[in-house]
Amino acid sequence: MDQYSFVKVIGGGSFGRALLVQPINEEQNYVMKEIRLPKADFGIRNSRREAVLLSRMKHPNIVAFKDSFEADGHLYIVMEFCSGGDLLQKIRQQKNALFSEDVILKWFAQMCLGTKHIHDKRVLHRDLKSKNIFLTDSGTVKVGDFGSACSLYSAKAYAQTYVGTPYYVSPEIWDNKPYNNKSDVWSLGCVLYELCTLQHPFQSRSWKSLILKVCRGAYAPLPSHFSYELHYLIKHMFKTNPGDRPSVHTILSSHRVSQLLHKHLVPENKELVQEQTRHWRREEGEKVAMFLGQKSLVTTTSTEGTMQVEQSPVENNSIDDPASRKRWAVRTCNTVLGVLGNADIISTGSMENAERADLISEAECVETQERRVRKQWDKDPPERLLSVLEKAQLCYGFETYTIHRDEHGDKVDGPEETITDYSRLEPRSDDEDTDFEEECPYDWINELEKMVDEH
User: Fold this and answer.
1) Using 50, 70 and 90 to split pLDDT, how confident is the model at 435?
2) Could you tell me the pTM of the whole model?
3) How far is CA 222 from each of CA 193, 225, 336, rounded to the nearest angstrom?
4) pLDDT above 70 (res 71)
5) Which residues, 6 or more positions from 36, have their beta carbon under 8 angstroms from its beta carbon?
6) Is 358 a catalytic residue?
């Protein structure tokens, strides 16, 4: 105490007194918070916690810590003096004249920045209210009074001890449930509502009625002249389910009101919020990149009626060639029908005719292609054949099978020799097509079914 000169008492409460002091060798004023230390060791540790947590907070929108010491059974915390008073004083000075929306958004944006810094340190303030938010001469907002704050061991941890001022306490605390940083968001919503209406959002003559209103989230709407974004923000900050409330980071970076808040931030704070937002997206993008890195791009080419999958080289620049377009690798199929379903149709004729078409002129190719297209009747899908192919393994598709007719079928006279009618191999014109196919009473699909079942 010897290094400070006492000026006057500027406040008090259950903690003790708030003194205005001045260092011996300085002209600047500071606030000295005088806290009587309890006799129990547990109470002493809790009292010292405020000084420890405040010393960790270094942000332009948080009351700055200067010093702390113990003397004569008291803990003294020396901190920055905000000569502009607190928001509760400002609200009472307004009488019935409402603040402008620009002033409200300017103050609220700074409150969010200070609260976000606290949450980033994994600390809950637990007593955010208009009396604990201060103003400097220049109009800068400072969040103060960490007497009820607590640290969480992880970002997903919860607090359980009831702390707070009844008008600003969230529903989950009244419902005796664990709570986290979303409880501070509820309290910030109460302060924002006060700035808009000069009244508490939840008021009642009895504790029971007050708690019921809070747990139901029942409040009078904001005056109609405020923007839709402000109405929307209040509505979501007062969601009774904490999971439905936006975090302070969301309010500053991606909420409907974010653009309005950014108009009232100094360039340094804008860059800070944008940088952290980009950093978060980059981390999420890395997860996607790791997943996609496990996939490979392939080119699909058709060979002998089947699909051959080859890895596409990086230096392949033939983007315009449809046959070499990059595609995601597909799951390997084990059945004939599966392969046919994934294969590309490259020609309506045989592979032999397709290769021969490369050797003739373009005009002849067009003429040949026109002759090759034959008229056919529309038919239903061959369900029976499809069912066989669906069961047939892919390896069977590379074997050659001969389907014999019944031994009592047609036979030719004379020596057995192979007779090839080359005219039937040539493409026919449409005029030569008949309106029916050659009748073949032999059930060759039945024979194919037997082969598949035998394998």
Assistant:
1) very low
2) 0.59
3) 8, 8, 68
4) yes
5) 16, 73, 74
6) no
Place of tokens 């010491």: 69
CA proximity to 150, closest of 141, 142, 161: 161
232 token code pair:
């929307």
CA 397 to chain centre: 47
Strands 133-135 and 306-311: unpaired
- Cα gap 317→202, rounded to integer Å: 67
Return the ∠ at Cα 436 (arms to 431 and 440), rounded to 5°. 135
278: pLDDT confidence band, cut at 50, 70 and 90? very low
> CA angle at residue 333 from 330 to 337, to 5 degrees?
115
Measured in degrees and rounded to the nearest 5, phi and psi for residue 111 equal: -60, -40
Phi first, then psi: give them for residue 220, nearest 5 degrees: -70, 140
pLDDT greater than 70 at residue 446 = yes
Distance CA 47, CA 414 (A): 117
More confident residue, 8 or 308: 8
The total of other beta-carbon atoms located within 10 Å of residue 388's CB is: 19
Burial of 17 from C-beta contacts in 10 A (0-12 / 13-18 / 19+): middle
Q: Are 76 and 68 in contact (CB under 8 A)?
A: yes
| Residue type for position 56 | R
Task: For residue 144, give both structure tokens.
Answer: 């103060």
3-class DSSP string for 271-282: HHHHHHHHHHHH
Residue with tokens 């002129």: 361
Annotated active-site residue in 86, 127, 145, 184: 127
Q: Where are the beta strands (DSSP E) in 144-243?
A: 150-151
272: left (phi over 0), alpha (psi -120 to 50) or beta: alpha
Phi, psi torsion values for 222, nearest 5 degrees? -65, 160
Query: pLDDT digit string (tens) for 126-170?
Result: 899 999 999 999 999 999 988 888 887 655 566 656 566 788 999
Give the pLDDT band (50/70/90) at residue 29.
Answer: very high
CA 150/CA 156 separation, integer angstroms: 14
Strand-pairing partners, residue 5, are: 22
Which structural domains are found in the chain, ordered by start? 4-80 (3.30.200.20), 87-283 (1.10.510.10), 331-455 (no CATH)
**Nearest-angstrom CA–CA distance, 215 and 238:** 10
Tell me which range, 8-17, 310-319, 400-409, is most confidently predicted by mean pLDDT.
8-17
Q: Is the pLDDT score of 185 beyond 90? A: yes
Distance CA 334, CA 446 (A): 22
Q: Say yes or no to pLDDT of 304 above 50.
A: no
